[in-house]
Amino acid sequence: MARLAHISDLHFGAHDDKLVAAVERRIDAEKPDLVVASGDFTQRARTAQFKQAGAFVQRIRDKGHVVLTIPGNHDIPLYDIFRRFFAPLTRYRKFINPVLCPFHEIPGAAVLGINTARSATFKDGKINNEQIAFIGETFGRIEPKTPRILVTHHPIFALPVGGGGIGKPIKNQAAVLNMVGELGLDLLLAGHNHRASREDSSEFVTKSTGALVIQAGTATSTRVRGEKQSFNIIDIDGETVTVTVVGWDGTDFKDGTPARFTRKDDRWMLIGDQGLEHVPSAPKEAAQPAS
Ligand SMILES: [Fe+2]
Ligand SMILES: [Fe+2]
């Protein structure tokens, strides 16, 4: 059994201190085996914002928690052109994590974070061929029955966006999906869209990859559209995965109804009151800008 606290899109610089303190309290109470923070630590990649974000991560580590971090598109300077192209993640490496693609093996799960943020694009994400090879090597060393979890900032699929609509899929998606299928990845975690959601990957492509796709909303940003701040608690117990969205109600974070999933015929199914059900997919509306 492994418990992950999945937080994302903290956006220090456009954050609410009240939510930051509440997230810290709640993470500590949940006693996760791993805290996963899937990018956009800052609003504009400024030093003062990274210092605040780094202090937040350090406070969680000081309480004894292990934190996996990856950068998001907001962690690359936008207006400082020199830094954007020649030293895009220097501040991230200094204040958050020198490792851009960290790997953590915990009892009951193997979790790999991959950096999808790129200087050459405003907010789209990419996993390149070198990273695909690295993912294969990393999970290739894992005992076959261990659940395999890939964490990216940008979602691999076109997923719902906070405020409505759907975002863009990741660039190089076809090669990434081949890799996901060949490696038998179990969970694909992402942020970026500021919207909590859970779907089965075979909803999005004709070739079933059999992965449960989980998005975290923004945990602490004040820039929300239509959806309140939230984060996910993910419990992995062999073939059963339970996802609880913990949402801000204006005064504190409160648990949503836990959703339990299990595999059947190479796809994830929701465990409902009447038995197994297809995972309901969010409405696919016109594309919206994501952050
Ligand atoms: Fe983002
Ligand atoms: Fe974001």
SSE layout:
Elements: E1 2-7, H1 17-30, E2 34-38, H2 47-62, E3 67-70, H3 81-86, H4 90-95, E4 103-106, E5 109-114, H5 129-140, E6 148-152, H6 173-183, E7 187-190, E8 197-200, E9 212-215, E10 230-237, E11 240-248, E12 253-255, E13 259-264, E14 267-272, E15 275-278
Parallel strand pairs: 1-2, 2-3, 5-6, 6-7, 7-9
Antiparallel strand pairs: 1-10, 4-5, 8-9, 10-11, 11-12, 11-13, 13-14, 14-15
Helix pairs in contact: 5-6
Bound molecules: fe (ii) ion (2 copies).
In short:
By secondary structure, the chain is α/β, with parallel strands linked by helices. The chain has helices at about 15-30, 45-60, 80-85, 90-95, 130-140, 175-185; strands spanning about 1-5, 35-40, 65-70, 105, 110-115, 150, 185-190, 195-200, 210-215, 230-235, 240-250, 255, 260-265, 265-270, 275-280. Helices cover about 20% and strands about 25% of the residues.
